[in-house]
Amino acid sequence: MPRFRVPLEIGPLNVFVGKLPPDLHDNYVRNLLERVGTVVQWKRTTDPISGKPKAFGYCTYATALDCIRALKLLNGFSLDSKNILLKVDTTTQTKLDEYTAQMPPQLQFEEDHKNERVAAMLQRLFEERSGLHGGDNNDIASWGDLMENVDSGAKEVVRGGMIMNEVEKFRLAQEERAAQLEAKRLALIQEKLRRDKEDAERG
């Protein structure tokens, strides 16, 4: 049986993501968005003529909590001297406000602790990227001029390390998603058993 009753889920929800650095690789953006919640879809707007990515896009988060966490922790996050912008439309914001108002204290307490952990992780990402305009975990496209004077052999070593990092991140993300889905499945089963028991007792 669930420890507390959670508000009725209102996701998936769309979030506008803007003020992105023009040279920031799209893989890095998606990876960043996934650090705070489950991303159903990320679509960066591109110029119809040049095909180059524009400074904004739209992210769909799976749940209300994912969306709330993204707005809280990523709005204003600094990337290459730019503070990115995350926002939702008025209708979605109203739904999120209502959802938040219905959250039981225990759920809010757990979310606050999770937000603290995610915020600490984002701070480490910021420090890595700021230290060399592209730390070891960043996409090679974000290194810019730092790679111009490096010989091709060294570039391949850097690329190889980054690919391995991305593979590991993908594996961990998949494991986390699987765990989240399993937790949701068990919660639904427990809720059904509780309702069946109540129906049987009333009958």
Automatic annotation (TrEMBL):
Coiled coil: 164-191
GO cellular component, one term: spliceosomal complex
UniProt KW keywords: Coiled coil, RNA-binding
SMART domains the UniProt entry points to: RRM
GO MF annotation, one: mRNA binding
Claim: rRNA-binding is one of the keywords in the record: no
Domain of life (superkingdom): Eukaryota
Cited InterPro entries: Nucleotide-bd_a/b_plait_sf, RBD_domain_sf, RBM25, RBM25_RRM, RRM_dom
Record CDD domains: RRM_RBM25
Record-annotated RRM domain positions: 13-91
Name recorded for this polypeptide: RRM domain-containing protein
Organism of this sequence: Aphanomyces astaci
